[in-house]
Amino acid sequence: MPHINFNGMQIDQHKVVTLHYRLQESNVEGELIETTFGSEPLVFLYGVGQMLPEFERQISGKSEGDEFQFGISAADAYGESDPEALVELPLDVFIIDGELAEDLLEIGRRIPMSDQDGNQLIGTILALKDDGVLMDFNHPMAGQDLYFTGVIESVRVATEGEIAHGHVHGPGGHHH
After folding, report:
1. Distance (Å, rounded) from C-alpha 160 to C-alpha 146?
2. Which end of the chain is more exposed for a tag (fewer CB within 10 A), N or C?
3. 10 DSSP 8-state letter
4. What does the pLDDT look like over 27-80, one tens digit per residue?
5. Model confidence over 78-101: pLDDT tens digits?
6. Where are the domains of the chain?
């Protein structure tokens, strides 16, 4: 009879996952976007919408010590870039206390804003014009294919409190 080596709990709904990852543009040769190697690992509650659904699908069933590598297309990550999210705003939007907030107006700067319905948005300044500011309200990684490599450090059952609150408590998680 073959010996089955089961090295622990598998990732699924309401498990707390601790992992290290490297995120690159498009593929394994792509530019490094971010990494947790050499710093604190990512700790999250699986299955409650904290992570990209495709990221969770790719690591489902993995256990402590398992390595992973996979790509996620832009459509399954942060979506394609939407040309309608490029908006030219009049300069008077940037008048604060009667003065134009010139210190905010730098190309590439991300500025928190809200729309007419009070929804919070973050826009990136693309261009400054004489009569306005061209802003991009797409997610900064919209239109970008992603490539992840990494290793699962640990998997544990979430506490009732973590499940009720929808996030991890304690080390690497949320503190109340």
Report:
1. 33
2. N
3. B
4. 999 999 999 999 999 999 999 999 999 999 999 999 999 999 999 999 999 999
5. 999 999 999 999 998 888 888 888
6. 15-78+142-165, 83-136
* 121 Cβ contact list (under 8 Å, min separation 6): 112, 113, 114, 115, 137
Domain 83-136 indexed as CATH 3.20.20.20: no
Report pLDDT for 116: 81
Q: Which residues contact 27 (CB under 8 A, 6 or more apart)?
A: 71, 145, 147
Q: What kind of architecture, by CATH, is found in domain 15-78+142-165?
A: Roll (3.10)
> In this structure, what DSSP letter does residue 49 have?
S
The residue written with tokens 């826009």 in the block is: 123
pLDDT band with cut points at 50, 70 and 90 for residue 17: very high
Ramachandran class of 98: left when φ > 0, alpha when ψ lies in -120 to 50, beta otherwise = left
The residue length of the chain stands at 176
